[in-house]
Amino acid sequence: MTIKKILIANRGEIACRVIRTAKKMGIATVAVYSDADRDALHVRQADEAVHIGPAPSSQSYIVIDKILDAIRQTGADAVHPGYGFLSENPAFAEALEKEGVTFVGPPVNAIQAMGDKITSKKLAAEAGVSTVPGHMGLIEDGDEAVRISASIGYPVMIKASAGGGGKGMRIAWDDAEAREGFQSSKNEAKSSFGDDRIFIEKFVTEPRHIEIQVLGDKHGNVLYLGERECSIQRRNQKVIEEAPSPFLDEATRRAMGEQAVALAKAVGYHSAGTVEFIVDGSRNFYFLEMNTRLQVEHPVTELVTGIDLVEQMIRVAAGEKLSFAQEDVKLNGWAVESRLYAEDPYRNFLPSIGRLTRYRPPAEGSQADGTVVRNDTGVFEGGEISMYYDPMIAKLCTWAPSRLEAVGAMSDALDDFEVEGIGHNLPFLSAVMEHPRFREGRLTTAFIAEEFPEGFSGVTPDADSARKLATIAAYLNQMLQERAVQITGTIGNHRRVVERDWVVTLAQRDYPLTVDMSADGTIARFADGATASITGGWVPGQSHARFHVDGVTLGVKVDLVGTAIRLRWRGIDVTARVRSPRVAELARLMPVKLPPDTSKMLLCPMPGVITSIVVKQGDTVEAGQTLASVEAMKMENVLKAERRGVVKHIAASAGQSLAVDELIMEFE
C-alpha cells in the first residue's frame, strides 16, 4: 500500500514535525486549523489546510466528525494524530478504519488496553513486565484503601485509573493520609475524567522516570530503540529529557528494553510507542504506563539512533516491514532536549500569552565544534501565543559525543535563543543546565522541587560571572562613548575626550576599572589589580552578540535601557550601569524607590479569562477563602485571600480577558 496524502490531526510544533518528514518522503500534507490557528506555521507549511471550527479544542481539534469531514474534503488517505488531542482515542482510530483511512499509529485494541492504567498493569504483569507492588482491583471505600496501603507498606501512591497530567494523584505516608488521599483522588478523578476508579501502589523512593522507545511493524517485528531520561519534571510535566540515561548500565537497559518489547508484543503492537518505567536508586525498575503514540521528546532518540521515527510510523502504517533488526540499533553520543514554554518562571511558571515580538532560534545543524543543534517549533516571529492550547513554543535539542558536551552545547544554544514579547522559561532552562547536580546526572523526579523549593527567582552571578559581565558592560559603554564623539562637522580641537575610568554597578556590586581600547582588543583593568581582555562583534542595535572574555566565548543578549545596559546570559539577568567615578559616588546617595503598595489589591497573576468571581462588594472574606478563578492554556488558577478583609470594589467580571497584574478587586 502506498500513502499519498496525510492529514495531520494536530497543530503546532508536532504538526510541523510530521509535515517535514512527509515532504521528505514525497507525501502530500493536509493541515487542520481552528479560528485561533488561522495564520499558524503548520497551516503555512502544509500543501492544503482545512478550517475545523472555533478556538477551543473541544470545538475543533478533538471533534472526530470535523476531522472526518476534512479527510473527505481533501481525499487524504492517511492520518497522523501527533500527540495529545485524538492521538490515544480508540474511537478516533475506529472511525478512521470505518472510513477506510489509514491510521498512522497502533491498532485499536492496543490503544484500548494501554489507555486504562488498571488494565495495562494487569497485562504488563501477565507479559512478565516488572510492576510496582500494588492493588490493581477496584477499591470500595477509605477503610479498604487504608487496609491495602498498610499491606503494601507506606509510602503509597493513590492514583486515578483514567488519570493523566498529575490529576487524581496523592502520596500517603500513613493511614490518615491514605484515607484522606483516597477520597480526594476519587473526587478529582470524577470531576476531571468522569471516572472515579482508584488504584494504590508502592511509592518508589529516589525515583527516576525512564522510558523505552519501542517500534513495531505489522509483521510481528518489535524493537526497542534505547531509553530516554525524563526525570526533570515540574508538576508531573516533563521539562528536560535526554538520551541515553546517565543512570542506566547496559544490563538494565537491555532488561528494560526486552520487557518493553514483550509488553508491545502482548497487545499486538505496531507503530512507535513508549513504555514508561519508574526506576529506584538501586536500578530496580517498575512499569508505569504505555503511551500508544509518538512522544513529545522523540527527537533525542532520533539524534542518538539516526532513525526518523515519524518516517518509520508512516512506513509501518503503509504495511512495510522494518528495514533493520535489534542488533542494528546503536546508540551514538548523547542528546538533550529542553522544552521552551510560554510561562513566566518568575511568577511560579504561570502561563504567558501574547505576540512574539522577537523569535530567533539558534542556528540549526552541525556546529563548528562538532555538536548538533535541532529546534522543533510551531511558531514564528510576529505570531501569537494563544491562551487556548499547550504553552510549549519549541523543543530545543543538542547532540554531542558525550553528555557534558551535549549539556554545554545546550547552554550555548539557550544563550543564543532570542524570545521577546512574552514570559518564557529560557532563564530557568539555563539555570538547570548549569546546576552541579544536573551536570553530575544525579537526577530524580523531585529534582526541581528539591533544588528550587521557593520557585525560580533568577540566577545570581558568582564572582567570576559578575566580573565577566562587568567587563562586557564596560566594553559596550566604551564603544557607545567612542561612537558618540564621531559626529561629523565638529571642530577637531573641540571634540570631547572619552574618559577611560569608569565604575560598573552590577548585581549590587561596584567594579571600578579603566578601559584601554586598541586595534588588538580591549583590556579592562580593575581597581583590585585584576585584568580582563575582551573582543566582540557587537554594534549598536544588535540584541545578541558573542564576546570573547579572557578566551571564553559568551553569547549574551544585550538591551540598552536608557543609560543602562541589560545583559542576559546563562540564566543571569542583570542591569549594569556604567558611570564616571564622580557620578557613581553621587548615585550612592540617591534614595531607593520603593515599589507601590499592592497589599490591598487582588491582581491577575497571568494573562487569561476570569472564569468566576465568587464574592461581591462589601463581603468580609477570611484568609484562604476563594475569591476568583482565572483560566489560560488549559490551566485554571484559583485565587484566594491572603488575609481577612472587606471587599471594597470589584473591577472585573466573569468572562473578561485580563492582562497580567490587571486589577480584579480591591479591599478596604
From TrEMBL:
Q: Provide the protein name.
A: propionyl-CoA carboxylase
> Which EC class, in a word?
ligase
- What single Pfam family name could you report for this chain, choosing any that match? CPSase_L_D2
Task: Tell me its cofactors.
Answer: biotin
Q: Which UniProt keywords apply?
A: ATP-binding, Biotin, Ligase, Lipid degradation, Lipid metabolism, Magnesium, Manganese, Metal-binding, Nucleotide-binding
Q: In which pathway does it act?
A: Metabolic intermediate metabolism; propanoyl-CoA degradation; succinyl-CoA from propanoyl-CoA: step 1/3
| EC number(s) recorded for this UniProt protein | 6.4.1.3
Q: What is the lineage of its organism?
A: Bacteria, Pseudomonadati, Pseudomonadota, Alphaproteobacteria, Hyphomicrobiales
Catalytic activity, as annotated: propanoyl-CoA + hydrogencarbonate + ATP = (S)-methylmalonyl-CoA + ADP + phosphate + H(+)
Residues spanning the membrane: none
